[in-house]
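User: Let's play a game. I give you a shape written as tokens, and you guess the letters that built it. Ready? Here's round one.
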């Protein structure tokens, strides 16, 4: 079938909205008409890292409506509203343990499919597709039962599109990885889409004190609106200021930036036996002062996609959304796909926390 997609050919050239050909669904696939797709940091980093000139359709926070199902798919129906997430095999030890973010085939299943394996074509030219098992910067995608979750048709797909990556990463890091409680001090470093989701989740589960750290006054103002008790702007004296709050520091911390100096600050801000979870991918190596970890019994922990099983966690997020605990309207700005370059620029500059592209 003919579809509309935003094609990237490198970070130096604007994305172009083109007509592509999408093959028919296989027996285990679902054809989804995309209504909305969030823009995530990983779309920009992949665009920059991909060989210039080679076409790829990015996008991995898709939300839409089912248009067709393969014969092996029995519990999804045409017309169902769905959220898309990353792909996983469903068979390996981690998938069997409900931790598909650590799927043995994660990299292979989410990097996109090339050449004859790709479901996309532009005239005779192959286009890399199936990025995160979707490539949702497109009017239609092929997904599988593994990376699709059926949701209540009443929810606004534009507002919840980012649940399948940024929101589950931040919320899951709080509820599944760190699990702070009413006596805890949680410090969130960087309040973009992931950090804001962490703040909202922390408020939803009743964390004692939530501290948000960022360089942007506007983002900190929003973090306070969403539930941060304390906001700290800038990079000066941040660890000392957090250590001055209750308990001698943060019992739990989350780094969404991937920046080595910020991670060093977060380690310094931890109280004795405090835990820091890392969810932001950074480019620079991380020098770690081992004595700072050992002497105070601190833990450093990585996490991908919040350690959640999207099939159980995304419905929980949708419940929270309906209860007003995830007021995504404060984060989301919608852009028709024709304005995707403006949306990508607003994501990169931080002008908008969660740009979401929409298809008519
Ligand atoms: Zn697996
Ligand atoms: Zn993402």
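Assistant: Ready! My guess for every position:
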């Amino acid at each position: 079938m003919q579809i509309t997609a935003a094609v990237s050919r490198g970070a130096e050239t604007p994305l172009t909205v083109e007509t592509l050909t999408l093959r028919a669904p296989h027996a285990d696939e679902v054809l989804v008409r995309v209504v909305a797709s969030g823009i995530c940091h990983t779309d920009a980093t992949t665009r920059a890292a991909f060989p210039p000139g080679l076409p790829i359709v990015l996008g991995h926070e898709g939300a839409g409506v089912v248009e067709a199902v393969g014969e092996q798919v029995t519990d999804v129906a045409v017309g169902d509203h769905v959220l898309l997430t990353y792909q996983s095999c469903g068979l390996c030890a981690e998938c069997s343990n409900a931790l598909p973010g650590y799927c043995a085939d994660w990299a292979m299943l989410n990097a996109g499919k090339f050449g004859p394996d790709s479901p996309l074509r532009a005239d005779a030219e192959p286009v890399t597709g199936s990025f995160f098992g979707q490539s949702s910067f497109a009017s239609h995608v092929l997904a599988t039962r593994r990376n699709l979750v059926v949701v209540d048709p009443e929810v606004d797909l534009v507002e919840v599109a980012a649940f399948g990556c940024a929101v589950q990463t931040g919320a899951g890091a709080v509820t599944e990885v760190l699990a702070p409680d009413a006596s805890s001090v949680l410090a969130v470093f960087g309040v973009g889409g992931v950090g804001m989701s962490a703040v909202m989740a922390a408020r939803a589960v009743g964390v004692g004190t939530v501290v948000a750290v960022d360089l942007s006054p506007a983002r900190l103002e929003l973090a306070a609106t969403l539930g941060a008790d304390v906001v700290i702007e800038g990079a000066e004296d941040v660890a000392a200021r957090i250590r001055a709050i209750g308990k001698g520091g943060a019992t739990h911390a989350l780094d969404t930036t991937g920046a080595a100096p910020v991670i060093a600050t977060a380690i310094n801000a931890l109280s004795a036996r405090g835990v820091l979870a890392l969810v932001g991918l950074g480019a620079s190596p991380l020098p770690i002062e081992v004595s700072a970890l050992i002497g105070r019994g601190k833990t450093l922990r990585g996490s991908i996609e919040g350690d959640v099983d999207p099939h159980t966690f995304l419905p929980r997020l949708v419940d929270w959304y309906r209860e007003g605990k995830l007021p995504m309207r404060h984060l989301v700005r919608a852009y028709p796909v024709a304005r995707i370059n403006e949306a990508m620029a607003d994501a990169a500059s931080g002008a908008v926390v969660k740009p979401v592209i929409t298809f008519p």
